[in-house]
Amino acid sequence: MKKLAIITGASRGLGKSSALALADKDVDVLFTYHQNKAAADDVVETIQQKGQKAFAVQLDTRDVAAFEVFISQLGIILEREFGRSDVDYLLNNAGTGMHASLEDTTYEELEDMLAIHVKGPFFLTQALLPFIKNGGHILNVSSGLARFSMSGSSAYAIAKGAVEVMTRYMAKEFANRQIRVNTLAPGAIATDFRDGNVRDNPQMNQMVSSITALGRVGEADDIGNAVAMLLSEGSGWITGQRIEASGGMFL
Ligand SMILES: NC(=O)c1ccc[n+]([C@@H]2O[C@H](COP(=O)([O-])OP(=O)(O)OC[C@H]3O[C@@H](n4cnc5c(N)ncnc54)[C@H](OP(=O)(O)O)[C@@H]3O)[C@@H](O)[C@H]2O)c1
Protein backbone atom coordinates (compact mmCIF):
# COMPACT_ATOMS: atom_id res chain seq x y z
CA MET A 1 0.00 0.00 0.00
CA LYS A 2 1.15 3.54 -0.72
CA LYS A 3 2.31 5.73 2.15
CA LEU A 4 0.17 8.61 3.42
CA ALA A 5 1.50 11.73 5.12
CA ILE A 6 -0.38 14.31 7.18
CA ILE A 7 1.28 17.73 7.01
CA THR A 8 0.20 20.84 8.90
CA GLY A 9 0.51 24.09 6.95
CA ALA A 10 1.24 22.86 3.44
CA SER A 11 -0.50 25.62 1.47
CA ARG A 12 2.78 27.55 1.24
CA GLY A 13 6.46 27.47 2.08
CA LEU A 14 8.22 24.48 3.62
CA GLY A 15 5.03 22.46 4.10
CA LYS A 16 4.11 22.86 0.45
CA SER A 17 7.59 21.93 -0.73
CA SER A 18 7.54 18.89 1.58
CA ALA A 19 4.15 17.81 0.23
CA LEU A 20 5.38 18.04 -3.38
CA ALA A 21 8.68 16.27 -2.63
CA LEU A 22 6.78 13.44 -0.91
CA ALA A 23 4.35 13.24 -3.84
CA ASP A 24 7.37 12.81 -6.12
CA LYS A 25 8.23 9.77 -4.00
CA ASP A 26 4.80 8.23 -4.49
CA VAL A 27 3.34 9.38 -1.14
CA ASP A 28 -0.29 10.58 -0.80
CA VAL A 29 -0.81 13.74 1.25
CA LEU A 30 -3.52 15.01 3.58
CA PHE A 31 -2.64 18.51 4.69
CA THR A 32 -3.98 21.50 6.57
CA TYR A 33 -3.97 25.20 5.81
CA HIS A 34 -5.03 28.16 7.92
CA GLN A 35 -6.56 30.90 5.73
CA ASN A 36 -5.24 30.44 2.23
CA LYS A 37 -7.75 28.09 0.59
CA ALA A 38 -6.82 29.08 -2.97
CA ALA A 39 -3.17 28.22 -2.36
CA ALA A 40 -4.20 24.94 -0.70
CA ASP A 41 -6.37 24.05 -3.70
CA ASP A 42 -3.38 24.67 -6.01
CA VAL A 43 -1.23 22.31 -3.95
CA VAL A 44 -3.93 19.62 -4.08
CA GLU A 45 -4.10 20.00 -7.87
CA THR A 46 -0.31 19.85 -8.28
CA ILE A 47 -0.06 16.67 -6.18
CA GLN A 48 -2.87 15.08 -8.17
CA GLN A 49 -1.07 15.98 -11.41
CA LYS A 50 1.91 14.04 -10.03
CA GLY A 51 -0.39 11.01 -9.77
CA GLN A 52 -0.91 10.95 -5.99
CA LYS A 53 -3.99 11.55 -3.87
CA ALA A 54 -4.29 14.80 -1.92
CA PHE A 55 -6.84 16.53 0.29
CA ALA A 56 -6.72 19.82 2.22
CA VAL A 57 -8.49 20.66 5.48
CA GLN A 58 -8.78 24.08 7.14
CA LEU A 59 -7.36 24.00 10.68
CA ASP A 60 -5.92 26.59 13.03
CA THR A 61 -3.19 24.56 14.71
CA ARG A 62 -2.98 26.99 17.61
CA ASP A 63 -6.64 26.31 18.43
CA VAL A 64 -6.52 23.08 20.44
CA ALA A 65 -10.31 23.17 20.92
CA ALA A 66 -10.76 22.81 17.12
CA PHE A 67 -8.87 19.50 17.05
CA GLU A 68 -11.90 17.59 18.33
CA VAL A 69 -13.91 18.50 15.20
CA PHE A 70 -10.94 17.72 12.92
CA ILE A 71 -10.42 14.32 14.54
CA SER A 72 -14.13 13.52 14.45
CA GLN A 73 -14.04 14.01 10.65
CA LEU A 74 -10.69 12.36 10.03
CA GLY A 75 -11.88 8.76 9.81
CA ILE A 76 -14.45 9.74 7.16
CA ILE A 77 -11.91 11.80 5.19
CA LEU A 78 -9.34 8.99 5.25
CA GLU A 79 -11.88 6.44 4.06
CA ARG A 80 -13.51 8.68 1.42
CA GLU A 81 -10.39 10.36 -0.02
CA PHE A 82 -7.71 7.71 0.51
CA GLY A 83 -9.60 4.43 0.99
CA ARG A 84 -7.83 3.67 4.28
CA SER A 85 -8.07 4.26 8.02
CA ASP A 86 -4.50 5.10 9.08
CA VAL A 87 -1.49 7.27 8.22
CA ASP A 88 2.24 6.58 7.96
CA TYR A 89 3.77 10.01 8.55
CA LEU A 90 3.01 13.21 10.44
CA LEU A 91 4.90 16.44 9.74
CA ASN A 92 4.18 19.09 12.40
CA ASN A 93 5.19 22.07 10.29
CA ALA A 94 2.61 24.91 10.54
CA GLY A 95 4.00 27.97 12.22
CA THR A 96 4.49 31.71 12.34
CA GLY A 97 7.38 33.86 13.50
CA MET A 98 7.80 37.13 15.32
CA HIS A 99 10.55 39.61 16.00
CA ALA A 100 10.90 41.56 19.25
CA SER A 101 13.58 42.00 21.85
CA LEU A 102 13.08 39.98 25.02
CA GLU A 103 12.52 43.29 26.81
CA ASP A 104 9.66 44.25 24.47
CA THR A 105 7.97 40.85 24.07
CA THR A 106 4.45 40.85 25.49
CA TYR A 107 2.75 38.06 27.42
CA GLU A 108 0.36 37.57 24.47
CA GLU A 109 3.21 37.26 21.97
CA LEU A 110 4.98 34.57 24.02
CA GLU A 111 1.64 32.77 24.54
CA ASP A 112 1.04 32.87 20.78
CA MET A 113 4.45 31.34 20.02
CA LEU A 114 3.90 28.59 22.60
CA ALA A 115 0.37 27.96 21.27
CA ILE A 116 1.34 27.48 17.64
CA HIS A 117 4.71 25.76 18.05
CA VAL A 118 4.29 23.73 21.25
CA LYS A 119 0.73 23.27 22.52
CA GLY A 120 -0.71 22.79 19.01
CA PRO A 121 1.73 20.05 17.87
CA PHE A 122 1.66 18.44 21.34
CA PHE A 123 -2.12 18.01 21.42
CA LEU A 124 -2.55 17.43 17.69
CA THR A 125 -0.02 14.59 17.81
CA GLN A 126 -1.77 13.21 20.88
CA ALA A 127 -5.11 13.29 19.04
CA LEU A 128 -3.65 11.80 15.84
CA LEU A 129 -1.78 9.01 17.58
CA PRO A 130 -4.58 6.42 17.21
CA PHE A 131 -4.46 7.02 13.42
CA ILE A 132 -0.67 6.71 13.08
CA LYS A 133 0.48 3.25 12.05
CA ASN A 134 2.78 1.20 14.23
CA GLY A 135 6.20 1.80 12.69
CA GLY A 136 5.17 5.29 11.53
CA HIS A 137 7.34 8.42 11.63
CA ILE A 138 6.65 11.86 13.10
CA LEU A 139 8.78 14.87 12.16
CA ASN A 140 8.55 18.08 14.21
CA VAL A 141 9.86 21.27 12.63
CA SER A 142 12.13 23.35 14.85
CA SER A 143 14.64 26.02 13.81
CA GLY A 144 18.35 26.73 13.78
CA LEU A 145 17.45 29.45 16.28
CA ALA A 146 17.00 26.79 18.97
CA ARG A 147 20.76 26.04 18.65
CA PHE A 148 22.19 29.52 18.12
CA SER A 149 20.92 32.88 19.38
CA MET A 150 20.03 35.96 17.36
CA SER A 151 18.59 39.02 19.08
CA GLY A 152 14.87 39.53 18.56
CA SER A 153 13.97 35.84 18.34
CA SER A 154 13.70 34.82 22.00
CA ALA A 155 9.96 33.96 22.17
CA TYR A 156 10.07 32.06 18.88
CA ALA A 157 13.32 30.26 19.73
CA ILE A 158 12.13 29.30 23.23
CA ALA A 159 9.09 27.66 21.65
CA LYS A 160 11.27 25.84 19.10
CA GLY A 161 13.55 24.69 21.91
CA ALA A 162 10.50 23.11 23.52
CA VAL A 163 9.72 21.37 20.22
CA GLU A 164 13.11 19.65 20.41
CA VAL A 165 12.55 18.41 23.98
CA MET A 166 9.02 17.35 23.03
CA THR A 167 10.49 15.30 20.17
CA ARG A 168 12.74 13.33 22.52
CA TYR A 169 9.85 12.55 24.87
CA MET A 170 7.61 11.51 22.00
CA ALA A 171 10.39 9.28 20.65
CA LYS A 172 10.78 7.67 24.07
CA GLU A 173 7.07 7.11 24.70
CA PHE A 174 5.95 6.13 21.19
CA ALA A 175 8.79 3.64 20.72
CA ASN A 176 6.57 0.92 22.19
CA ARG A 177 4.71 1.12 18.87
CA GLN A 178 7.93 1.45 16.85
CA ILE A 179 6.88 5.00 15.94
CA ARG A 180 9.97 7.13 15.35
CA VAL A 181 10.01 10.85 16.14
CA ASN A 182 12.64 13.33 14.98
CA THR A 183 13.19 17.07 14.78
CA LEU A 184 14.06 18.78 11.51
CA ALA A 185 15.60 22.18 12.19
CA PRO A 186 15.80 24.41 9.10
CA GLY A 187 18.12 27.39 8.95
CA ALA A 188 16.93 30.65 7.42
CA ILE A 189 14.82 29.83 4.36
CA ALA A 190 13.46 32.14 1.66
CA THR A 191 9.68 31.80 2.16
CA ASP A 192 6.81 34.11 3.18
CA PHE A 193 7.85 33.48 6.79
CA ARG A 194 8.24 36.68 8.84
CA ASP A 195 7.02 38.80 5.92
CA GLY A 196 9.46 37.19 3.51
CA ASN A 197 12.37 38.78 5.36
CA VAL A 198 15.04 36.24 4.32
CA ARG A 199 13.83 36.23 0.71
CA ASP A 200 13.02 39.91 0.14
CA ASN A 201 15.32 41.93 2.41
CA PRO A 202 18.73 42.16 0.65
CA GLN A 203 20.62 42.99 3.87
CA MET A 204 19.10 40.00 5.68
CA ASN A 205 19.72 37.72 2.70
CA GLN A 206 23.36 38.86 2.54
CA MET A 207 23.88 38.50 6.30
CA VAL A 208 22.48 34.94 6.33
CA SER A 209 24.61 33.99 3.32
CA SER A 210 27.72 35.32 5.06
CA ILE A 211 27.23 33.13 8.17
CA THR A 212 26.28 30.01 6.17
CA ALA A 213 29.03 27.59 5.18
CA LEU A 214 27.43 26.83 1.81
CA GLY A 215 27.22 30.59 1.13
CA ARG A 216 23.53 31.23 0.42
CA VAL A 217 20.14 31.28 2.16
CA GLY A 218 18.03 28.12 2.08
CA GLU A 219 15.26 27.58 -0.46
CA ALA A 220 11.98 25.81 0.35
CA ASP A 221 12.99 22.82 -1.75
CA ASP A 222 16.13 22.34 0.38
CA ILE A 223 13.75 21.52 3.22
CA GLY A 224 11.16 19.65 1.15
CA ASN A 225 13.90 17.32 -0.07
CA ALA A 226 15.23 16.84 3.48
CA VAL A 227 11.72 15.94 4.68
CA ALA A 228 11.26 13.43 1.86
CA MET A 229 14.66 11.92 2.65
CA LEU A 230 13.89 11.60 6.37
CA LEU A 231 10.37 10.25 5.76
CA SER A 232 11.73 7.32 3.81
CA GLU A 233 12.54 3.74 4.63
CA GLY A 234 16.27 4.41 4.86
CA SER A 235 15.88 6.43 8.08
CA GLY A 236 14.47 3.48 10.02
CA TRP A 237 17.10 3.48 12.79
CA ILE A 238 16.93 7.22 13.50
CA THR A 239 14.73 8.38 16.37
CA GLY A 240 14.77 11.12 18.99
CA GLN A 241 17.29 13.12 16.95
CA ARG A 242 17.62 16.72 15.83
CA ILE A 243 18.67 17.05 12.20
CA GLU A 244 19.58 20.57 11.10
CA ALA A 245 19.20 21.55 7.44
CA SER A 246 20.78 25.00 7.33
CA GLY A 247 23.60 24.77 4.82
CA GLY A 248 25.90 25.00 7.85
CA MET A 249 24.85 28.18 9.67
CA PHE A 250 27.24 29.23 12.44
CA LEU A 251 29.43 26.12 12.20
N1 LIG B 1 11.29 30.01 6.70
C1 LIG B 1 12.25 29.90 7.61
O1 LIG B 1 13.26 30.61 7.58
C2 LIG B 1 12.12 28.89 8.72
C3 LIG B 1 13.28 28.54 9.43
C4 LIG B 1 13.20 27.62 10.45
C5 LIG B 1 11.99 27.05 10.77
N2 LIG B 1 10.86 27.42 10.08
C6 LIG B 1 9.60 26.79 10.48
O2 LIG B 1 9.07 26.12 9.36
C7 LIG B 1 7.65 26.07 9.45
C8 LIG B 1 7.06 26.57 8.15
O3 LIG B 1 7.56 27.87 7.88
P1 LIG B 1 7.43 28.50 6.41
O4 LIG B 1 8.69 29.22 6.17
O5 LIG B 1 6.97 27.51 5.44
O6 LIG B 1 6.26 29.58 6.66
P2 LIG B 1 5.21 30.19 5.60
O7 LIG B 1 5.77 30.22 4.24
O8 LIG B 1 4.74 31.46 6.23
O9 LIG B 1 4.00 29.12 5.60
C9 LIG B 1 3.29 28.89 6.80
C10 LIG B 1 2.31 27.76 6.61
O10 LIG B 1 1.70 27.50 7.88
C11 LIG B 1 0.30 27.74 7.80
N3 LIG B 1 -0.15 28.38 9.03
C12 LIG B 1 0.19 29.60 9.50
N4 LIG B 1 -0.46 29.85 10.66
C13 LIG B 1 -1.23 28.75 10.90
C14 LIG B 1 -2.15 28.39 11.92
N5 LIG B 1 -2.42 29.21 12.95
N6 LIG B 1 -2.75 27.18 11.84
C15 LIG B 1 -2.49 26.36 10.81
N7 LIG B 1 -1.65 26.63 9.82
C16 LIG B 1 -1.03 27.82 9.87
C17 LIG B 1 0.09 28.62 6.59
O11 LIG B 1 -1.25 28.44 6.09
P3 LIG B 1 -1.97 29.62 5.19
O12 LIG B 1 -1.29 29.59 3.84
O13 LIG B 1 -3.39 29.18 5.12
O14 LIG B 1 -1.77 30.90 5.90
C18 LIG B 1 1.18 28.08 5.65
O15 LIG B 1 0.76 26.90 5.03
C19 LIG B 1 7.29 26.89 10.70
O16 LIG B 1 7.10 26.02 11.79
C20 LIG B 1 8.52 27.74 10.92
O17 LIG B 1 8.65 28.13 12.26
C21 LIG B 1 10.90 28.31 9.06
From TrEMBL:
Pfam families: adh_short_C2. Belongs to the short-chain dehydrogenases/reductases (SDR) family. Keywords: NADP, Oxidoreductase. Coiled coil: none annotated. This is SDR family oxidoreductase. GO terms for molecular function: oxidoreductase activity. Gene3D superfamilies: NAD(P)-binding Rossmann-like Domain. InterPro entries: NAD(P)-bd_dom_sf (IPR036291), SDR_fam (IPR002347).
